[in-house]
Amino acid sequence: MTTLQPPFSQADLAAQLRDLGLQPGGTVMAHTALSQLGYVIGGEAAVVEALLRAVGPEGTLMMPAQSWQLCDPAYLDLPDVPAEWHGAIREGLPAYDPQRTPTRTMGAVAELFRTWPGVHRSAHPQRSVAALGPLAESLTAVHDLDDASGERSPMRALYDARGQALLLGVGFDKCTALHLAEVRASYPKRYVPNGGPIQRDGVRVWETWEELWLEDADFREVGAAFLAQHPTAKHGPVGSADAVLVDVRSLVDFAAEWFTATRGVVPALG
Predict the structure, then answer these.
(1) pLDDT at residue 2, rounded to an integer
(2) Confidence at residue 269, expressed as pLDDT on a 0 to 100 scale
(3) Is the pLDDT of residue 268 over 50?
(4) Would you say the C-alpha torsion 187, 191, 194, 198 has a positive or negative sign?
């Protein structure tokens, strides 16, 4: 007979997050899957409140706020969007608005967080980051169109702030900081065209750029390798989910070397 797990309150989640290693005054980028947490009283609002409670008013909470719907349709190359539609889509997509543009595929917690009072959101039309706390403005201030996860992005700012990454019911394939490691690694890289609608001087314009083609197929593998060599990483339950808390600087440094060593290597013939 299966035992029904009791519901989790905001206070329960906050206590578990503290036990995991979140500290008052810390800076953390959270990646969450509400569906993995069990029955949370208050749903996504309780999760946001618990995260804010864990880091306290002196801490800064970040979450991804990506809006993939504003990518160039040729970049997305969706099977149900024929090429003859691309021109109309480029002309008709609304300009990115940090206050109004919804997230896409980020989950209920991240979508609510981007609307939270006082949240700052970075300027990239597709890969924005939302943040709340004393460091929020500085963490989101720089986000170049052609460097969405690199040295001119919130990921570099998070690295410099010696922040943490929290994986709450998700795997390393959702860890945005690993894209900074891709930028820093040495392997055969591919750059692709992209574009999106932005506002410039109050006028909607379609901006184009070239960017590094980012991968995540090996993110779970590099995450497992990192955990195997870094026993100080934190593991534990939050709600019904498995949670992992890692130091961003240690993870990015490790992954940059790992990508350099593994990507682009041709397997030997057996």
Answers:
(1) 58
(2) 47
(3) no
(4) positive
From residue 236, give the alpha-carbon distance in Å to each of 16, 86, 134: 8, 46, 27
**Rounded to an integer, what distance in angstroms lies between the CA atom of residue 181 and that of residue 88?**
36
d(CA 48, CA 10): 9
Which single residue is written with the structure tokens 């190359």? 77
DSSP string, the chain: -PPPPPPB-HHHHHHHHHHHT--TT-EEEEEE-GGGS--BTTHHHHHHHHHHHHH-TTSEEEEE---GGGS-HHHH--TTS-GGGHHHHHHHSPPP-TTTPPPSSS-HHHHHHTTSTT-EE-S-SSS-EEEESTTHHHHHS---TT-TTSTTSHHHHHHHTT-EEEEES--GGG-TTHHHHHHHS-S---EEEEEEEEEETTEEEEEEEEEE----TTHHHHHHHHHHH-TTSEEEEETTEEEEEEEHHHHHHHHHHHHHHHTTPPPPP-
Residues ≥6 apart with Cβ < 8 Å to 21: 164, 234, 245
Instruction: Give the model's pLDDT for residue 264.
Output: 81
Specify the pTM: 0.94
CA atoms of 169 and 172, how far apart (whole Å):
10
Q: What is the pLDDT of residues 171-190, one digit of tens each?
A: 999 999 999 999 999 999 99
- For residue range 76-111, list pLDDT tens digits in order: 999 999 999 999 999 999 999 999 999 999 999 999
